């Protein structure tokens, strides 16, 4: 099979499997590997220690798969709807329903089988593998790397997941896309915690997505007010992107908002026991952070938006652990300081 035919075949199967875009690049050292290494060295990985390990593998797919010749980058639109599901708290859109890791992995398995039939050997990843996904997406022309570091696609805007297959097949590469951000800095200005310090410069340990999802300990006091009503992740740098005016709701309905998640009022989340938490967030990416970390986030949001009605449940939660005691106490103080009496 010629590299050009392999390119067409892989794209055809990817499309059949429901991916919204598929592009190919040559397996080589990631073009911005040095930026990643500097980023790690500067301590930006914070609690995400896995980003500091296997750096050689992460920088070069040939270190991951012997004989790797090409990287197939894939995009899956996840936009659940353009409106926020509730007005009293915010959850990042990518987590409004089923966990994308499971959903995309099923499709990757099928694409792997099809490529095995073409004579290739593959490794496939979505998010958790040692691959600089956005760098390879950029190299293949699957959008361009925006100033927020989020990958932007002319048709999908910013609302898509990335996944890739590393393969021993020699596939004709696609051309990189141009950068279409121009002079726009809307994403940089929109970041509530000033985590984007310049074009493509991200201090992850300031990002609300990091603070509410990846960070394991107490949320530093300096960020609590800026977190506002966000209880899992943050979409502000994506919402601000003008390229999202072309974005359409995802075809995959398992990524549309799931009722159970948005049936709760903010304070109700604090009443959930472990079983309730597992039930509401079954299959959702939110289950990953477990109940204590999630309740920690809810306490911060209540500190910013709660009323005296929330004080009793916050008092209850204080008894649960040192971390919840501290976050609930902070929230109680914030609510009282806004003029809500005991
Ligand atoms: C760690 C991580 C995070 C961290 C750190 C984010 C960061 N900017 O580094 C935190 C927890 C903060 C995070 C947040 C989010 N994440 Co995240 N995250 C990752 C993960 C696992 C690794 C990223 C990484 O290696 N970071 C280190 C830095 C140095 O790498 P990088 O940001 O990818 O930067 C590279 C590009 O900028 C690249 N580059 C590419 N092209 C070009 C072009 C030019 C000209 C230049 C100069 C550079 C450049 O060079 C850098 C080094 O290689 C990836 C999956 C993966 N394996 O790649 C998902 C991933 C990046 N996350 C994703 C998502 C959806 C999010 C959130 C939107 C979730 C949310 N709503 O809360 C936010 C977005 C915040 C943001 N502005 O980035 C998606 C992004 C999809 C997309 N369209 O871009 C990914 C790809 C997961 C997936 N499989 O879909 N995330």
Plain-language structure description:
- The protein has helices spanning 3-16, 33-41, 55-59, 100-117, 133-140, 186-190, 208-214, 221-227, 236-239, 259-262, 274-280, 290-305, 311-318, 322-337, and strands at 21-26, 70-77, 90-91, 122-125, 144-145, 151-152, 160-167, 196-198, 201-202, 230-232.
- With 342 residues, the chain is of the alpha+beta class.
- The strands form 4 sheets. Strands 1-2-7-4 form a 4-stranded antiparallel β-sheet, sandwiched between helices. A two-stranded parallel sheet has the order 3-10.
- β5 and β6 (151-152) form a beta hairpin.
- The longest helix is centred in the N-terminal third of the chain and has 18 residues, at 100-117.
- The radius of gyration is 21 Å and the shape is elongated.
- It starts with a helix and ends in a 5-residue tail after the last helix.
- The model has no long low-confidence stretch (mean pLDDT 95).
- Bound molecules: cobalamin.
- Cobalamin (B12) binds at residues 30, 32, 35-36, 39, 48, 51, 92, 94, 126-127, 131-135, 138, 145, 148-151, 158, 160-162, 200, 202, 204, 207, 209-210, 213-214, 233-235, 237-238.
Rounded to the nearest angstrom, the distance between the terminal CA atoms is: 75 Å
Q: How much helicity do the residues have?
A: 25-40%
Q: What percent of residues are in strands?
A: 5-15%
Task: Specify the biggest β-sheet.
Answer: 4 strands, antiparallel
Q: What would the average pLDDT be, to the nearest integer? A: 95
> Helix-strand pattern, N to C?
HEHHEEHEHEEEHEEHHEHHHHHH
Bound molecules: cobalamin
Strand elements, count: 10
Structural class: alpha+beta
Number of domains: 2
| Order of strands in the sheet with most strands | 1-2-7-4
Described by the principal axes of the CA atoms, the overall outline is elongated
Counted by DSSP, the helix tally is 14
Backbone CA Rg? 21 Å
Given as residue ranges, the uncertain stretches (5+ residues, pLDDT < 50) are none
């Amino acid at each position: 099979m010629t590299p050009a035919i392999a390119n067409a075949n892989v794209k055809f199967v990817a499309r059949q499997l429901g991916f919204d875009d598929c592009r190919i690049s040559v397996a080589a050292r990631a073009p911005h590997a040095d930026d990643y290494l500097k980023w790690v060295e500067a301590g930006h990985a914070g609690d995400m220690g896995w980003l500091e390990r296997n750096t050689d593998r992460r920088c070069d797919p040939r270190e991951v798969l012997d004989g790797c010749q090409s990287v197939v980058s894939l995009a899956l639109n996840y936009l659940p709807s353009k409106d926020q599901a509730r007005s009293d708290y915010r959850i990042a859109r990518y987590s409004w329903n089923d966990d994308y890791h499971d959903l995309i992995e099923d499709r990757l398995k099928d694409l792997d089988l099809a490529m095995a039939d073409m004579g290739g050997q593959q490794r496939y990843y979505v998010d958790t593998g040692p691959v600089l996904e956005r760098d390879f997406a950029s190299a293949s022309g699957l959008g361009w790397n925006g100033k927020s570091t989020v990958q932007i696609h002319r048709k999908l805007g910013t609302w898509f997941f990335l996944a890739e297959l590393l393969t021993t097949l020699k596939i004709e590469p696609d051309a990189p896309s141009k950068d279409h951000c121009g002079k726009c800095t809307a994403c940089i200005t929109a970041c509530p915690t000033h985590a984007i310090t310049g074009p493509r410069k991200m201090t992850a340990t300031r990002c609300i997505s990091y603070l509410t999802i990846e960070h394991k300990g107490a949320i530093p006091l300096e960020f609590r007010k800026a977190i506002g009503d966000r209880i899992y992740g943050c979409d502000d740098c994506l919402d601000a992107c003008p390229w999202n005016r072309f974005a359409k709701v995802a075809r995959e309905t398992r990524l549309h908002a799931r009722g159970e998640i948005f049936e709760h009022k903010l304070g109700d989340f604090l009443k959930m026991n472990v079983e309730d938490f597992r039930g509401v967030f079954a299959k959702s990416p939110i289950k990953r952070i477990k109940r204590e970390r999630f309740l920690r986030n809810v306490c911060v949001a209540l500190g910013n938006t709660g009323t005296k009605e929330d004080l009793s449940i916050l008092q209850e939660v204080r008894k649960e652990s040192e971390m919840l005691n501290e976050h609930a106490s902070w929230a109680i103080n914030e609510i009282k300081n806004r003029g809500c009496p005991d």
